[in-house]
Amino acid sequence: MKLKTFFLTLTIFCLNIVYAQTNDLPHIVKKDNRYALMVDGEPFLILGAQCNNSSAWPATLPDVFPAMKKLNVNTLEIPIYWEQFEPQEGIFDYSVVDEIITRARENNLRVVLLWFGTWKNSSNHYMPEWMKLQPDKFPNMVNSKGEKIDSPSPHIEATLQADIKAFSALMQHLKEFDTKHTVIMVQVENEPGCWDSVRDYSKNAEKIFNKPVSADILKALNLSPESNKNWTDVFEKDAEEYFYTWHVATFINQVAKAGKEIYPLPLYVNAAVRNPFNPGVYEVGGPTDNVFHIWKVAAPNIDILAPDIYESETKVYLKLLELYSYSDNPLFVPETKFENPYPKFFYSALGQGAIGYAPFGLDNVRVRIKENGDVLTDEELLEPTALNFRTFKPMAREIAKLNFDGKIKTAIQESAIDPKSDRGSSSDRKNYITDKTLSFDGWDFDVAFGIFGRLNRLKNQPEQPDGRILVAELNKNQFLITGYHVRALPRPTKKTNGCNWYYLKVEEGYYENGEFNVKRIMNGDQTDWGLQFGTPTVLRVTLYTR
Ligand code: DGJ
Hints:
The chain is α/β, with parallel strands linked by helices. It is built from 16 helices and 24 strands. (2R,3S,4R,5S)-2-(hydroxymethyl)piperidine-3,4,5-triol binds at residues 53, 121, 190-191, 308, 335, 360-361.
């Protein structure tokens, strides 16, 4: 009896340990079609930056971390190169990954590791030398003219097994080395797919393409099982792209599955997106918006299909955020540009419920030259992102929670403002220019973008419209507001009897350890003309009706 009780207690103890460990692991949760990335058991907002492609070396890391500090990021996105990780077949070198994790901890940063494996921007350039030198064993694809192209074939078992082996070694090592969960997510491959051909036309691939589509694939895609129909019969004009996409996605899924079985961190695949309004030429095979349905069934071990957004047109950027935040997919922007007009889209991403956002190429390893020939200064490189993240870093957890609860709305300035127009000198609501209205339970916020009043006469006006605002409902009648080059004026949704102003209290402050600290109470000129954000401050605004 005693022995039985002992074993029962031991079992419960062990189960608790397993539960606690899995529970502490970063993971993604879903509620009412919204998502949160849980880190240390709480929603986490990735304020990230990605370093340049060749910056993840011990020799260059000293030029990466100081930039991260200036940016005020909480997460570094950084590659692990297969060629470095497995220099000889079956021999793994963990020194760089360990160095990255150790330095990230010293700098109080989390890490998203990017597995530069079989695919990097459609090529095989990060395969180790021992693989590149065996092109017959690990071949690239062949185009419709029979020419070899610079992209690995997804139909090769040897390549798949080699990638599985290396990725598994990486995940096994993370499991053992990274017990503090500094690494919160891993990107599997980088912009997989192909720019130069819609599929592989090698003899091997031709055979598979002309075979009947398997019943499993048809079932997965919700199609009726039709015997003996090949890809062209079933998918007609889309056959080649779907065929190739299916095989890239299933290849990557197998790599992801093997890694996840060892260490189940959230995994994602990034897409070189296509312009949804005007696709033109784009990289096929990756998770572009037209093939989500294929990726979702072919790659169930991938948690997120993530857009790399380098499209600057507002309409296109916003559409991509909307497409990649559909009900089955958490929105995460792992790459985007850092310069204007891009930083304002960080707010748009939050408005779509993003779990993270990270501009690309932000370190001091690479010198960038501007169009006029001058070297881009540190300030020009880092400040546009820092401007956003300085404000958000202290309250990143709060924002992630509010977003998970569906409490956040945002707006951005879409068009330039005539500097001669006076958009802000009157407290009379009739004369107030409204570009957007953000509506909450009981309150509307009329939003006007631009720099106001006399500031309109400032020299060095922004070349691009750069206004942005975020309003979050904290409690009934209480809101958190931040923004840049914007003014917001609250009003009760229901009509009241001509009363213009409804502030009970407007507090300027900042979050620290989950508490809002008040710096000052704003009143008089600072509120009577609306809540103005010439620089990004954080306001807690309590409203009432009389
Ligand atoms: C997208 C890729 O994913 C990045 O690694 C990088 O190559 C950028 N394009 C371009 O600099």
